[in-house]
DNA sequence: TAGAGTTAGTTATGCGGATAACATTATCCG
DNA sequence: CGGATAATGTTATCCGCATAACTAACTCTA
């Protein structure tokens, strides 16, 4: 692969990252949320109450990020943190009623965003998009590379 | 589009963003650079010395980000900032010799990253990848949406 | 030409996310 | 059992990037 091709790919990924996140931020602002927090709330809605370590894995980010985000969502009342029974190290995070209500709005917003994102892309490509993007993501994921711990 | 499809797309984009950036960070660390800075250096290598406002547009990020990044790259000696002749408001940013040398290493690294990223993706898909990703990016780009200023 | 409006850049502040260093608790095994 | 090792979570610190608020300079037009 020559430099121009490589650059086109890397730049496109960068642009998509930046602008998708910015758009998420715009859509989330009226709900009082910041980008990233929606992922945590949606994960809790999907999987129910869970330990922060599990959240860290599910969200694909590091434990300190989870600590901060869950603290802030706790401060805004959308999430509740309590000691895990059976493991004095762990904290269980779960949705409050307020958080559950927010998730409902999030779901609508999330669908609108996805539709907006794939506008003008042929249907077959759209169907294969998650798999394609996840392949790219896995390829650059640290834990999937030899030598990672 | 139902929620699960939408979620698959949005989540995949999030993961790709996170992990691609993390991987860039890993590769850049030995050069003493942080993710984002490579984009600025490569843009200067592509287009030559330019005003910060042009950099802001080219990089797809906001002016304060450009101010900070160019200041830090100036501090590390890879970039030089000087007043623009003909416009007392503007600053021209250009590569130093050190920056030019870095860009050479960046190019190699950039190619390796792109190859790593598209591993296991069929050739026709790879060829169309930049266009596909740029379509997605444009779709969520603020400036391309009605009502943006 | 004078004032309105626009554009370039900066500072301040806040968030997500990362790493490094650390304390605490679990677990595994000799 | 008890000590080494692993896992959970926290704090501190750093960076990119964002918005808001501001200054200074350019441009356009009445």
TrEMBL record, chains A, B:
Domain (HTH marR-type) spans: 6-138
Record-linked SMART domains: HTH_MARR (SM00347)
Q: Which domain of life is it from?
A: Bacteria
What's the short name of a Pfam family annotated to this entry?
A: MarR
One GO molecular function term of this record is: DNA-binding transcription factor activity
- Which Gene3D superfamilies has this protein been placed in? Winged helix-like DNA-binding domain superfamily/Winged helix DNA-binding domain
The record's annotation in InterPro entries points to: HTH_MarR-typ, MarR/SlyA-like, WH-like_DNA-bd_sf, WH_DNA-bd_sf
GO BP annotation list: response to stress
Query: What's this protein's name?
Result: HTH marR-type domain-containing protein
């Amino acid at each position: 692969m020559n430099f121009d091709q490589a650059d086109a790919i890397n730049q496109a990924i960068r642009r998509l990252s930046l602008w998708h996140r910015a758009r998420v931020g715009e859509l989330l602002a009226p709900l009082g949320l910041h980008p990233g927090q929606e992922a945590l709330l949606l994960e809790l809605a999907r999987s129910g109450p869970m330990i922060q370590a599990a959240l860290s894995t599910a969200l694909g980010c590091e434990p300190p990020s989870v600590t901060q985000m869950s603290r802030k969502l706790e401060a805004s009342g959308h999430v509740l943190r309590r000691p895990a029974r059976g493991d004095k190290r762990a904290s269980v995070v779960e949705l409050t009623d307020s958080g559950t209500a927010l998730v409902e709005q999030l779901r609508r917003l999330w669908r609108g965003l996805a539709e907006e994102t794939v506008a003008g892309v042929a249907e077959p490509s759209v169907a294969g998009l998650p798999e394609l993007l996840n392949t790219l993501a896995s390829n650059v994921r640290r834990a999937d590379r030899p030598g990672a711990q």
